[in-house]
Specification:
By secondary structure, this protein is of the alpha/beta class. The protein has 12 helices and 15 strands. The strands form 2 sheets. The chain has a 9-stranded mixed β-sheet with strand order 14-13-12-11-7-10-9-8-15. Strands 3-2-1-4-5-6 form a 6-stranded parallel β-sheet, with helices on both faces. Strand 11 and strand 12 form a beta hairpin. Helix 2 packs parallel to helix 3 and helix 9 crosses helix 12. The longest helix is centred in the last third of the chain and has 21 residues.
Length: 413
């Protein structure tokens, strides 16, 4: 690898898997993109910057997406049937960025055709589909990535190293949320294309906020705790965007781990004030990976004025047998924290994720734990969706648990 590649290997425990792999600098990963819509083209824009990657084929049933994709890779062969693309001998790997309900048949057919697979999250539309895809990866020995870019984000990798080192003490809870303000709709040129273009709004094609957003953040929680939760409960509703959509625009879930620690997840798309974040709460400190910041529980004393008010209150009530003061200055607003990497990094790990996939395709070497993390992220968000739909507390099914050890510990790589 070149100098830039060497630096990347040092920065990512996932990419270090390729450090001793034998391949020439001239090797290329020849990739076919199934579903070059907005997300597919987003990935293509990163692949274009990687001299080891070449998108040699694209497939879609919607011609405008093909036309836009050809602006990035003008020489790519065009298909309207993914099965024909999979017959292309010049394609080494497939990047799947279709609507969710199509992931499973395309991925399974790709494995059968001997192609390596990158599949956008969520892997399947049911836990059973996700499990079968993972098992197919194991049975074929082919490379399998999912679109969990936080696994490759330097902020998140450093956060996990600090958590595992005990920097923030025992993790006592995790809060995750993703707030937006928009109807999530895309313009439709003619009515018959509504479900093709706005597939995220209909249950036949998507599970809404749980599969499109929660999948990322629930994975962060299980990654931090190095285990999967035992059970989940939740509630969802359409509270604002009452426009004929079928999926909820307001969801909340509580995931419970066997030690009693809870991960709460919330997403609303009619208010964007708080944005998105995962807050990992230890008894010694707190981490916000998305901001790339950490905060210790013990900080400088409160400002003089607040301290004075606090002292006055103590004098007024020190003769009354209260368990504590009725008012005391809180420190949250005064604790501005520190950046984990010195400043807030640019990007979200997508570039590193795709670089890792290219290396894996070239070497034929699957990085440890990547497929497993992607599988559990998908399965857990789908379990949360089922809990919302059924209005029940659900436990993670034993038959869908994987038999391998320490899959949530990239720090040991």
């Amino acid at each position: 690898m070149g100098a830039a590649g060497g630096t990347l290997l040092l920065a990512s425990p996932w990419l270090s898997a390729f450090a001793d792999a034998e391949h020439t600098r001239r090797s290329k990963a020849r990739i076919g993109v199934v579903g070059p819509g907005s997300r597919g083209r987003f990935h293509m824009s990163f692949l274009k910057n990687n001299p080891k990657a070449d998108v040699v084929a694209v497939c879609d049933v919607y011609r405008p997406s093909i036309d836009e994709a050809l602006k990035i890779y003008p020489k790519a062969r065009v298909y309207t049937d993914y099965r024909k693309l999979l017959e292309d001998k010049e394609v080494d790997a497939v990047l799947i960025a279709t609507p969710l309900n199509v992931h499973f048949p395309v991925a399974m057919a790709a494995f059968e055709a001997g192609k390596h697979v990158f599949c956008e999250k969520t892997l399947g539309i049911t836990i059973e589909e996700c499990y079968k895809m993972y098992r197919k990866h194991i049975d074929t020995g082919l490379v399998f990535f999912s679109g969990q870019q936080r696994l490759f984000d330097p902020r998140y990798i450093k956060v996990m190293e600090l958590i595992y080192a005990g920097t923030f003490g025992d993790i006592e809870g995790i809060r995750a949320y993703w707030f937006r303000n928009g109807d999530w709709r895309r313009p439709v040129p003619s009515p018959e294309l509504e479900r093709l273009i706005n597939w995220r709004l209909y249950k036949e094609y998507s599970k809404g906020l749980m599969t499109e957003l929660a999948c990322h953040q629930i994975q962060v929680g299980s990654w931090a705790l190095r285990q999967i939760p035992d059970k989940v409960m939740g509630h969802g509703a359409i509270t604002h965007w009452k426009d004929g959509r079928e999926v909820d625009d307001n969801v909340s879930c509580i995931y419970v781990f066997d030690n009693g620690v809870k991960l709460t997840y919330e997403s609303i798309i009619s208010n964007k004030f708080y944005g998105l974040e995962e807050q990992i709460l230890g008894h010694l400190g707190t981490v916000e990976p998305e901001k790339g910041k950490y905060y210790f529980e013990t900080i400088e004393p409160a400002p003089g004025f607040l301290q004075m008010v606090n002292d006055i209150e103590h004098k007024l009530f020190d003769a009354i047998p209260f368990a504590g003061t009725s008012w005391a200055p809180e420190t949250a607003n005064e604790n501005h924290g520190e950046f984990i990497l010195g400043k807030r990094p640019e990007g979200d790990g997508t570039s590193q994720m795709l670089d890792a996939f290219v290396e894996a395709v070239i070497t034929g070497k699957q990085p440890p734990k990547i497929a497993e993390e992607g599988y559990y992220a998908s399965a857990l968000c789908l379990l949360g969706y089922d809990a919302i739909e059924q209005e029940r507390i659900l436990t993670f099914p034993d038959e869908y648990k994987l038999n391998y050890l320490n899959h949530h510990n990239p720090a040991t790589l």
